[in-house]
Specification:
Layout lengths: L9 E6 L3 H13 L6 E7 L3 E3 L4 H4 L9 H8 E3 H4 L6 E4 L2 E5 L4 E4 L3 E3 L2 E4 L3 E3 L7 H4 L6 H17 L3 E6 L3 H20 L7 E6 L11 H13 L3 E3 L4 E4 L3 E4 L4 E3 L2 E4 L3 E3 L16 E2 L12 E3 L4 E2 L13 H19 L14 E4 L5 E5 L2 E5 H18 L2 H15 L4
Parallel strand pairs: 1-2, 1-9, 2-5, 9-20, 11-12, 11-17, 12-13, 19-21
Antiparallel strand pairs: 3-4, 6-7, 7-8, 10-18, 14-15, 15-16, 22-23, 23-24
Length: 413
Amino acid sequence: MKQKTIPEKKQIVILGGGFAGIRAALDLNNYLHDDDQFEIVLVDRRDYQTFYSALYEAATTEHWQIEARSVKRTVTIPLIDVFKNTRVKVFKAFIERIDLQDGKVVTDSRIIAFDYLIISMGSVANYFGIPNLDKFSFTLKSLEDAIMIRNKVEDLVTKKDSAQIVIGGAGFAGTEFAGELHNLLKHECAHHNKDLSKFKILIVEGGTYFLPGLPEKVSSVIAPRMAQMGIESRFSTLITEAGSNYVMLNNKERVEMDMLIWTGGVKAIKLPVEAELPRDKSDRIGVEQTLNLRSFPNVFLAGDVACALDPKTKKVVLQTAQEAISQGKHVATNVYRMIKNKNLLPYDPISVKFIVPVAGKFAVFYTPNLMTSGFAGWVIRKAADLRYFMSVLPFFTALKFWLFANQIFMKND
């Protein structure tokens, strides 16, 4: 009797466990939950998702009051919790090479073949070629960054009677971080009996106001709050060089500093691919309107690595968590449509909505049709966080995560 052969499963491989990758994996699991012909594999060098939206709060927790392991629990979502009771397999590995021609991903531990590939590997800090900036600045792109920043701040207050901290960039990350940094300094100075007025924060921004990508009316709410906290801002100003204890500005001024945090821009992770692919100046890969590659239609990109154009404005869409989630959903839909031999759908970017926390229980909520600020904005932000956790975690796990994070972060208010 001839033995029946079991056909090999087709592989859908997702590279990157961030906002886009997780959303794509969960949606594909929903689409293919009863189809045994397919296997969904997510590859990331970490076994957790970093919740980037809260890194500025993790970096400003009080060293003497909150342990590092508690900080980790506030900004890392274990992938085992996300994909519990799903068909998604998670491989923790470092991606060394992506062979688009032969359909293989080479990692430091195995080679993974793919039939469909989603690349959502995120971004890194963009130093724009500024001399020594990478050597003498902190960034805020990982849990490790957050822990190093809070340790350095605590060390400054412990050992010095005065200090200046420079923040490069007044975008979302720089603005959110500056306000919470003021609160951290306030608590640390009180704990160590130091004079808060002698610990300065300076924001250097190349644009003409806070959050230059948004309308100026948003900045008009944020600027007075920053001034009230004693935070100095220099606009239309660029950092042109960094040293161990100074930065040079484009007006030739040398500014002495004790710590530099760079939030002035990001670029896509340089993908380890052999194929020649179109890239923009931020290393984002050019994609079709359907978010796949013209030369490799079974390869899709989402999040910070994708150079996706808004069909209405013809501009590249913003690199935000909201966009990454939206693109993750879209590529999952198009992979499924490709499997079913249906036409792929063009991507339409989401409507603009932003929430910008500015120290304590205060945030600015902005849409083109509505803007509110203060405590109401802060409530909207906290609700948005909970909504995200509930979209990727079981209800009670999400609620527990959210409550624990708020318990930790509100100690800094």
